[in-house]
Amino acid sequence: MADRPLKVLIAKPGLDGHDRGAKVLARGLRDEGFEVVYTGLRQTPEMVATAALQEDVDVVGLSILSGAHLTLVPRITKLLRENGLDDVLVTVGGIIPDVDVPALTEAGVAAVFGPGTTIAQVAEFLRANARARE
Amino acid sequence: MAEPTEAASTRPDPAGRGPAAHAAAEPAARAEALADAALAGDRRALARLLTAVENRTPVAEAALRRLYPTAGRAHLVGITGPPGAGKSTLVAALIEKVRAAGRTVAVIAVDPSSPITGGALLGDRVRMQAYAGDRDVFIRSMASRGHAGGLASTTTTAAAIMDAAGFDLILIETIGTGQSEVEVAAAADTTVVLEAPESGDEVQAIKAGLLEVADLVVVNKGDRPGAQRTAAQLRAMLTGSAPKADPPTAGDAGQVPGPPPRPRPTRPEVLITTASTGEGVAELLAALDRHRAAARDSLGAEARLVRAEAQVWAILGDRLRSSLRDGARRMATDEVLAAVADHRLDPYAAADRLLATLGASIGQAGATPTER
Fold first, then answer.
1. Which of B26, B57, B260, B346 has a 20 to 30 Å separation from B202 between CA atoms?
2. Given an 8 Å threshold on Cβ–Cβ distance, is A125 in contact with B4?
3. Which domains does chain A have, with CATH numbers?
4. Residue in B4, B55, B117 closest to A121 by CB
5. Interface predicted TM-score of the whole assembly (ipTM), two decimals
């Protein structure tokens, strides 16, 4: 099957309880033809990495509104690397100050999607940058 | 910040994962490496194999060839029932009890794919995320990818791979089912049908379909009013008479191979659980074990034969379809299909004609199940 759907993990690491945005994105990507694994709120970095590994996803999308992104994201990307998942595309959405973007990029994040990003923009970016496995 | 901020550099491409390396790698060699790693307990290799299975790649076929002889030891348990009955919550509760008993467990959770876009929202993990640190729990979501019947077409193969990887128990959670998605019964050794309290009167319980294939019936949400009554009604209706086994239809001439008949379960036990609190889940696990022990007799052998048949028929159908759409045959096939669409040819005659075009290659393959 040449045209198999991309598989995306949408996770909300950390303690904030606002998952509306993550759910809207998950639903929107479903409508764009992605297979979306949604793991819900309050995920530890270990939960995110384990889910990414077991599900063999092409993309990990993290939604963070709590301000803890500089702590959480590098821990997650480190765990992904340790698990041999360095070919997984990592993106972050939520409230991320511009000044923090370079640090996230440094940690291995491919894109940061802030407020106002459309689902279509996210979908387009994922299609262009994630490599579907055989 | 309306535009995505792209990383300055393109992502690193770890050695051996570039497109060229992919094309060069022999599927057989890659399959062997992944299969050996999965057998040795490498969870990432297992995950990659499951992806290959889902995508029906040559790697998956070669890996299955290697792994299938090792499979057949796990207890495959199907969990089915209507949406919202609590299947995922019950699976999570079962994982806890199984791990407490020192056994390993893998889960396949199937959710539906969109018939419009092909996309899917796989949300069953939400309730099963507590086991991230435990390498003896492996959870995999699967989109149904257009397959009707409650599973994906590749679910049984995925379960066989997990089985070979050494898990003691494999829980197969179907999509939320209606009344007739009974496919899981052929995929599992033990089929658990979940009902919610107040889910219908006694007439619902005597309709044909899902409840007929249940080895165990579980009324979940046992803390809700009506649970006891629902269980009592189900017990009364289900234990009255177990339907008789159908005569086998495998190989009947001219029959479209539909879902094979399921060997009749004996009267299903009816249990009550409250998955959210764990109430009744230990009893359910004990009932699963009892059923497994009982199924080691002829009924179990019959069930395994049914599963083998279902798998092989499905693959045979896929192979037939793809060879009829292959290269030189494609145009002739399209013509026959167009003739049916225009009512110039009836569908049965069309199928015969297509089979005839394959006749030569089937003959070459030697003895086939359809040979007569």
1. B260
2. yes
3. 7-129 (3.40.50.280)
4. B4
5. 0.93
